[in-house]
## 1
Amino acid sequence: MNFSLTYDKETKELIQNRINFTSKRINILPEQLRAVFPHLLETEMKFKMNEDISSYIDHTLLKPDATKEQIKQLCQEAIDNKFYAVCVNSNRVKEAFEFLGKNSVQLAAVVGFPLGVTDTNCKIFETETAIDNGATEIDMVINVGRLKDEEYFEVLSDIREVVKSVDESVKVKVILETCLLTKELIVDACILSVIGGASFVKTSTGFSQGGAKVEDVRLMKLVVGDLAEVKASGGVRSYEDAMKMIANGATRIGTSSGVKISKEKNDVKQNQIDSISDQNLNRNSSSSSFVNPKIALCGAFLTAAISGFFAGYVYQQNSQNSNKKNPKKKK
Ligand SMILES: O=C[C@H](O)COP(=O)(O)O
């Protein structure tokens, strides 16, 4: 499946203005920052959905009252449905690691969750502990208050320090908590995440005033281009929701409804198969090619027999008639 996003004039202007604004806050030249985002010169961004939706899903359980048994079930569901990852609180990483065993499902730990306001040193310690216990990805919450205060050095350093504390192979996702941000701050947070070295920008914790919105996912993708990926999370409840996020640039879906989404996707697939079969049945109901061959053969035989009978009858009638017209001919 192919998708594309267009840089409309308004969005382009917004992003360019925020690059200027952010560059001043972190004390670099706007040209230097602009050079990091060359895709902003394009008019369109194209991308593909190559794989099954299961491989987009971070199967998530972050409730404070989640039990060991529920973590076990989460891991088993992720294995059974071939989800990309499970996402758990850092204190549950050890158990999730054991439950996942040698399966290829990745293990993401949330850090500074859900408020993002813990000290950077706490985030680093939490990150390192989670990695030691088997986490392969880190979902850290940005410091929203400092972002709103325009303390961009602090926000950048918070991200940068967490990224630096892990091996390059570990993907760090920065949760922006978009429901608390203006469009302008979403763009700034994306810029800071990219230059901080994050692999992903992620919309929401699922614990604040709102979750992922299509327009936010789209804006985030237009800012980060190919420099980072976008994870849509919080309130993604259906296959339709998930597909909308993917069509707008998300390459990962963080959701506690992964099993439902996967099932809905299979139902959609089954419906498509059923409708194709129905179409075939309707198309072929008037032709013999879809009929049981034995019945077709009997039918053909009967048709031939009846035609033969009629042919014989017509011939006989014709002969009788011609004899009547020309009695000599019979002799
Ligand atoms: O990071 C993922 C979210 O916490 C999941 O939120 P959700 O329960 O609304 O799907």
## 2
Amino acid sequence: MDKLVIKKSPALRGEVRISGAKNAALPLLMTSLLTQERCRYTNVPALRDINTTTALLKELGVGVENNGNGEICLSAGQLNSVTASYDLVKTMRASILVLGPLLAKFGKANVSLPGGCAIGARPVNLHLAGLEQMGANIEVEEGYIRAHVDGRLKGARIFMDMVSVGATENLMMAAALAEGETVLENAAREPEIVDLANCLKQMGAKITGAGTDNIHITGVPSLSGCDYRVLPDRIETGTFLVAAAVSGGKIRCTHAAPETLDAVLNKLQQAGAKITCGADWIELDMEGKTPKAVQVKTAPHPAFPTDMQAQFVTLNCIAEGTGVVTETIFENRFMHVPELQRMGAEIALEANSAVSKGTSRLKGAPVMATDLRASASLVIAGLIAEGETHVTRIYHLDRGYEAIEEKLGGLGASITRVSDS
Ligand SMILES: CC(=O)N[C@H]1[C@@H](OP(=O)(O)OP(=O)(O)OC[C@H]2O[C@@H](n3ccc(=O)[nH]c3=O)[C@H](O)[C@@H]2O)O[C@H](CO)[C@@H](O)[C@@H]1O
Ligand SMILES: C=C(OP(=O)(O)O)C(=O)O
């Protein structure tokens, strides 16, 4: 199994090219199931989750061409199965996003229940309830969601009592081919939802309101193919910016989307970073200073993203002052805290908050990655810790960060991937 060996590094400096967003690309690739025509996607990041998605689509019978350089073409003219098996679903929760498209296009779907994961239980009740309101018959048996519909799904007014990114995406895709109008109330407003809506619109879907909490979709009988470029990854961008901030460095993220990062940039400014943005780049300059501790509370977009929470816990560990990071989305998303404590961080967990005393002198240690963003927080800690940090179980990191060691290395970090086997 691979691990990352990270040594205390100089302040990060230079330019890093941001990849396409994992959380935009995953639902976008699923749109191929909604059409007979070929779909071409560009700026797709080279990630384990993308490979899992193409493997899943292949298993269903979708023609997959991975042309390299971020280009993937998919053709779902003929499927040979409507079953997403446990073996793939268990490695990537976003597999649940085949449910809406399969039901809408083929009238049936069997999708393994994703099960719990490190950051929380993550149920899919909102996905199922919404599809049932659209006329689907759904049973959960032997760990599988078995869904079918006679004829087309029917448009419905669907109120979601929690804001869910995945449920909004699944229902938006299903509604694109349903009969009549669907209204999604209390919908998620994340930039990845807007990206998905833009792609569906290019395919001929009729959608208004994406990016607000009230999305209207008028179903059409069929959709065409697409040629769509994936949105830049705001979480990858934020992760590099935090890494630069804790190191006291100066970096420029290129091919980025600054308008998707307001909450994160605001916290970095409060931490003392000088931030400058162009149309597709963001520059952070700490001017050699130690960051100031910040108070962070995660919430659905446009508030502070839960996927940046762990990275800010690391920032607060070494910052001046006491910082409180409160997690409101997932019930168990502080698995990085005990690992950071092993590196000498002074953090107290109080209910759903991590209170960091700041000015911790971190020391390198063997640490274990427990989920994707927890892994990122440990990598950042390793860059500033005295000595050497070994991060194991980095398959989590490979789900969501493209060539992270090369990109950080390009900014001056000392980070190497080594194989333990
Ligand atoms: C692939 C992808 O895009 N993943 C992102 C997506 O995950 P994902 O779409 O799974 O997250 P959701 O927005 O659905 O989850 C938000 C909250 O709603 C709860 N919930 C969700 C669905 C449901 O049917 N019932 C229910 O109770 C979840 O347990 C969680 O507490 O949004 C999360 C919240 O921004 C991000 O952390 C993930 O990186
Ligand atoms: C939690 C995340 O992803 P997923 O929903 O795919 O588990 C993430 O991207 O931080």
## 3
Amino acid sequence: MMEKYFKNFLFFYKAIGNRLFVALTLNVLVGILDGLGLAMFLPLLQMVSDNGGEIEGKSAVIEGMFSSMGLELNLFSVLLFMVSIFAVKGLIKFLSFSFQVIILQSFIRTVRIDMFDKFHVLNYKYFTQSDFGRLQNSVTAEVSRVGQACRSYLKTMEALVLVMTYLVLAFITNPQFSLLVTVVAGLTNFLYKFINRKTKGQSRILVKRNDFFQGMVLEYLNNFKYLKVSGKIQVFGERLTKGIKQVEETNKRIGILNGIALTIREPILIFVLSAVMLVQVEVLGGSLGLILLSIVFFYRALQVVLVMQNQYNVFLSVEGSLRNLEQIQREFDDHHQDTAGRTFTGLRSFIRLDGIRFGFGDRIVLNNIDLIIPENKTMAFVGPSGSGKTTLINLIAGLLSPDSGQILYDHKPIYEYDISSLQSRIGYITQEAVVFSDTLFNNISLWDKMTDENLSRYERVVQDAAMDEFVETDSAENQVSGLNLSGGQRQRVSIARELFKEPDILIMDEATSSLDSATEAVIQRRINEFSGKKTILIVAHRLSTVKKADIVVYLNAGNIEAQGTYEELMDTVPKFQKMVELQNL
Ligand SMILES: Nc1ncnc2c1ncn2[C@@H]1O[C@H](COP(=O)(O)OP(=O)(O)OP(=O)(O)O)[C@@H](O)[C@H]1O
């Protein structure tokens, strides 16, 4: 229990640092100034009542305070003091408020940036196996909710120190009365424990339901076209509606619980105050006069308790998001890609795969792969669908790490390199063409500067990728997006981008599968010019594209069954021969 309170405190303390204590101290100051201002009621009360014997004792302290400041205790000086105190209190409250805004902004900024920093180095295998709805929800909506958690937590803490300050003041004024009120009011906390537990439970359910809903939204957007053309958009729409209803149902429950917690506090406390006042005056024969100032403090405390209650409920309703964030941060840390500092400056001799094994979960995808890819040679991977070609390429490109075995770039294991320096030397074109909603120039240069040199490089690769047919002159500033280009056009944008990059190693995984034969031939001719100058890895089902490869590797069920030239494979591997015959080559 205490451990949990401490855990939350530690979480925010780690993110906010000692500024948290500054914020809290400012609040104690606000409370003390408020108390001091309110204490001026004592001399005022004394001025209006003649039988304030007990008040006199306490007000003597104030009188002493005034005389030490060289002031006389009269209506004017008391009121002047009160006005000044409240003015200073206003100023400090403003400081505290502004300080809180600053803390919060920096907290949310840090959490967001930190989240994406962790995301950038996330291992790709974990990414492909993740629930995308959860990932998306975590880096967007959940971070905002964690910001809300921080805000409400801070406000709760601040309210708590204020309540404490008022209670101390009430105790100083009238210990017996204050003790009675505190004990009775404390008993009502059991009720709140119950409500809080319920709220927390709902908050966790809410995160799960939001993850699920976000996942559905992603699928809806990604598959919009298919859902429409298949006439199933309404069916999917019903699932979405169900998701929305579930999220809102949970929100409603949390809202109602908050409402209960918020509204019952005041009537209960007023009841307690009245009951204790009756007992104190009627049974214990106390004086109403002195009770009054304690009541003012209690009432102040009550107002703050209400704020605290409100904020704590808000906190509980988003606490699920906080736990989710901690969990996902832990997962991100556990699944980050290991990468070392050696800068890759280009391939000098070969890439070597030694006894590579790789699986997704229990499914073994690659089984003991040994392979040497000599520098500046073209190697093609062929084999049935699902045989592991793309997975093998992804391992070579450093997207995936083998379960066992080693990948060496020029005698050094791949993990000894700074992976981004290696990947910046790899051109990777896949069947899923990547197009960003931006200008054509930015799409191809990936936001490089628009210098004369880059522009002429851009124009060259536009031609090399056979884009001239859909790209007019002065096209660099044209806006494109995945939606306003045809499949083949998107693929050519992807090819142009990798040519612009001028990589050492060019990987083409079904890179020309969406193109007509004529366009493919143009690009193929351009790629052929690289042969002997770059290391090229090709995955292709259309076997005509691999005829010119130096080495063809035949993969089957995660094993290399044969490798050699196209002709050698035709002679020695009947399965390959059959594949070629089926394509009428
Ligand atoms: N993210 C993943 N999670 C689980 N299994 C996966 C994942 N990606 C691929 N696989 C499995 O790994 C195996 C090899 O897939 P891979 O994409 O490497 O085959 P491929 O030879 O390139 O196939 P194709 O010619 O159809 O593109 C397949 O059985 C596939 O189901």
